[in-house]
Write a structure and sequence with these properties.
The chain is mainly α and 432 residues long. It folds into 2 domains: 258 residues, no CATH class; 161 residues, no CATH class. A hairpin with a 2-residue loop joins strand 3 and strand 4. The chain starts with a helix and ends in a 6-residue tail after the last helix.
Length: 432
């Protein structure tokens, strides 16, 4: 994970702009923090109370999820930097001086993460028992496991039978493309990735079932837009700043610096860029109802919007400059279409509800895949003990007074085991 000067400048610009937007109350990355922002903006809680809340919501995800999964990977998970923008922006003063301070701290932190991860990797390589290769197994199950998420989402929304049908079509398409997906046309060899194609078929089924749900005369979202018109206008007044942020996010995605989540990160690590882009696009679709609805109610947008800008960056990875302008255009369009799209969701209630089920299924699949991968990694480090260590770590964490975020438990357990093995090795109690 070596970074050029240009890459460090770009990531510094991203961290600075993100922290400034949070400082001004324009946008945040953590969806859980967004509903709390109006409480401060309208004077019902103090900035110190908001700062404490932002730290509690984001810090655990940074040190327990984003950074551990980024160590030794080819691309950093966005949570490592964008969640920190939430903390930096809110903890800095709410004035002109605070805008400057937040920008500087955001830039310095972002560069520090990039350089710091390389230092950590170099240190791990010096350990007598090097477990970095084993750590890469944490994300190994994600790629194939991800193809089942549409079936899980369909099950949550439409029931067991349709989930089984979707899973069956996904599996059949995987087997067919694994067997017949490579062929030659006019001396050109074409290889269709079975994971990516089966995911597309699963997503088609998911959208098909959701679109068949007919709407009545509900006007829930239209009512929200009318009630919170001033908050919607507040977001639109900052559309140019948000557009610049969208362009920067798309640029760092195209430059393979940041991935939106662990699933596209695992695919990029494996060199499957098209599949990573499709995965990111699917994730963004699931977040459109959440981001738009909470933005309208709170008057605060997302630092990466619906995260479509990440998908645009991967698709345009060969033309990073174009990715910046496309990302900026996407973010601008999201903001300007905020009211229109949200009202339109009333006509397709199934698609509107699908977003919630996508998010739930993504969390379920990702959590299980990371846990299984962590157990595989731990078993490679210490054969015979690894499964015991990770399963015990995971289950005991559940009853702790301050448990780690479940997505983070597996990677943290593997890193802790690797460090423990090295300590035991130095004490002569463990041999390679």
């Amino acid at each position: 994970m070596d970074f050029s000067i240009i890459e460090l400048i770009v990531i510094a610009a991203l961290g600075a702009m993100g922290s400034i937007l949070v400082n001004r109350g324009v946008a945040v990355f953590n969806d859980g923090l967004r509903p709390i922002m109006p409480e401060f903006l309208e004077g019902r809680i103090t900035r110190s109370e908001l700062a404490a809340t932002s730290f509690a919501l984001s810090f655990g995800l940074i040190v327990g999820f984003g950074i551990p999964l980024s160590i030794g990977a080819t691309i950093i998970i966005a949570h490592s930097i964008l969640l920190a923008c939430d903390i930096i922006g809110i903890w800095t003063p709410d004035n002109k001086k605070g805008i400057i301070i937040s920008g500087v701290l955001g830039a310095v932190y972002s560069i520090g993460v990039c350089l710091g991860l390389q230092i950590v990797v170099d240190l791990f390589n010096q350990l007598p028992v090097n477990f970095l290769d084993s750590l890469s197994l944490v994300g190994a199950p994600i790629i194939i496991a991800f193809t089942v998420f549409p079936a899980v989402a369909v099950g949550y929304q439409h029931g067991f039978k349709k989930a089984v049908a979707t899973a069956g079509i996904t599996l059949i398409s995987y087997l067919l493309f694994a067997r017949f997906g490579t062929f030659t046309v006019s001396s050109y060899k074409i290889a269709l990735n079975p994971e990516g194609m089966s995911l597309l078929f699963g997503m088609f089924m998911m959208v098909y079932f959701a679109a068949r749900v007919k709407g009545g005369q509900e006007t829930m979202n239209a009512d929200l837009v009318n009630i919170f018109a001033e908050r919607v206008n507040r977001i639109k007044r900052n559309r140019w700043l948000l557009a610049i942020m969208g362009g920067l996010v798309s640029l760092v995605s195209a430059m393979m610096i940041l991935a939106v989540d662990a699933m596209p990160q695992a695919l990029i690590n494996d060199g499957k860029y098209t599949e990573a882009a499709i995965t990111t696009l699917a994730r963004a679709i699931g977040f459109i109802p959440l981001v738009f609805s909470t933005a309208i109610v709170t008057g605060v947008y997302g630092l990466a919007g619906t995260t479509l800008v990440f998908a645009a960056g991967i698709f345009l990875r060969d033309i990073p400059i174009l990715a910046f302008f496309v990302g900026a255009a996407i973010m601008y369009a999201e903001v300007m279409l905020l009211s229109v799209v949200t009202k339109g969701m009333d006509k397709l209630p199934g698609v509107r509800e699908m977003g919630e089920h996508i998010r739930t299924s993504l969390a379920d699949v990702l959590g299980m895949a990371i846990l299984i991968g962590s157990a595989m990694a731990a078993e490679k480090i210490t054969p015979g003990i690894g499964f015991f260590w990770v399963m015990g770590f995971y289950l005991i964490n559940r009853i702790a007074k301050k448990p780690l975020v479940e997505l983070a438990v597996g990677p943290v357990a593997v890193i802790a085991l690797g460090i423990l093995v090295n300590i035991l090795h130095l004490l002569g109690l463990w041999s390679k």
